[in-house]
Structures are given as structure tokens and as C-alpha cells.
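Blackboard transcription, Thursday session:
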Amino acid sequence: EVQLVESGGDLVQPGGSLTLSCAASGFSLSNYNMHWVRQAPGKGLEWVSYISSSSGSIHYADSVRGRFTISGDNAKNSLYLQMNSLRDEDTAVYYCARYSGYSGAMDVWGQGTTVTVSS
Amino acid sequence: EIVMTQSPATLSVSPGERATLSCRASQSITSNLAWYQQKPGQAPRLLIYGASTRATGIPARFSASGSGTEFTLTISSLQSEDFAVYYCQQYNNWPVTFGQGTKVEIK
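(Written on the board underneath:)
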């Protein structure tokens, strides 16, 4: 079964750091590009970051550029999001999602992990 | 950045009725548009890609059309499981952007 499972969400103080993980199963990350998407409480979806399977192409939303770093470990079949200098407005459920090269859309999503930034 | 605008924000529909959701892009995205369904407490689910192609396992009552800047998602006969929030998303340009969502609620 194709599955994504996020972990690492936590309560963190403003200015703090956190690393999210996304474990893939049923497929190999070496063959797929990946996204991180977040959803603040009661709000819509916001794209955060993208990485190609080779890590040769990386994109960030303006709201996180310079603070967040996306990476992948194909050997561990896992995706990561290193988040630094966290702000209140980073509070959200963070989803990893698989990019479908065939469709261009996000065809597989994890269940999400919750990040709360608060003092 | 391409701004995606969905309308209406909320759509009240009776079960069995037809629902029509709209999505407009601030500039042409050709057919690089997807629709997602999200139920409370769940992750989004891909419904449509390429503006009009149903994803695997999506019932035929979901149909979509459009190109350029104007797009439509139609649910022909609403079932109880279809009451949810629907998002459009463009993947023509970076950054990828989502609409703000349309909530389809029971009338």
C-alpha cells in the first residue's frame, strides 16, 4: 500500500526549531518528487516547499524561504522539513504529499503532523 | 504569484442535487489545475487533475472542465459523503497556489 506518514510535530516557542519527517512506504522516493503543504487552524491549504527526487530542484514559498529547508534521504525513503526561526504564523498541520509526474498534481498525502508555535 | 479565487465560499445543497463550484486563476494556467476534496480531520484527496481528468477511484458523478483562467467542478448528484471542502490548485507556475476553498454543506 502506498502511504506517507508524517512525524515530528510539537509545541515549540517562537524563534525555536523543529524537524518534520515523512516516511514513505509502498513506493520509492528516489522515483518521485515531493511537496510539503500546511494548513493553519480553520484555514485553507498553503504550499510550503518542493523537492525533486534527485534534490536537484528545490522551491520554497516566500513565507518560509530562508527559514525552512527541505531535504530527502532516499536510502531511508524519507522526506524532511527543517524549520528554524519559527513564528506564531507557522502554527499549522503539515502534510507531505507526493508529486505525480504523470498528472502534475499531488496524488498521495500523509495524515499530517501538527506544529504549534506558542510561548 | 498566481492567485486562485474560488466561488462561492459556501454552497448549500440538498442530497441528490447538483453542485457547481468555480475557480478562477489570475492569469492563464492552461490546463494545469487540480481539484481536491477535504473532509474534517482528514488530509486532502486528489479528485481531478489536468483540469478535467478524474483521479483513480473517483466516482463519475465528479466532473470538471475549463482551461486558461476559468474552471468548474461539478458534482452531479450529491451523496452524503460529498459534503466537504473543495480546493482548486494550479501547478503551472511556481509557487504552486491553492484557492481558498468552497465548503459544500447540507441544505
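Lecturer's comment: Chain A has a mean pLDDT of 97.
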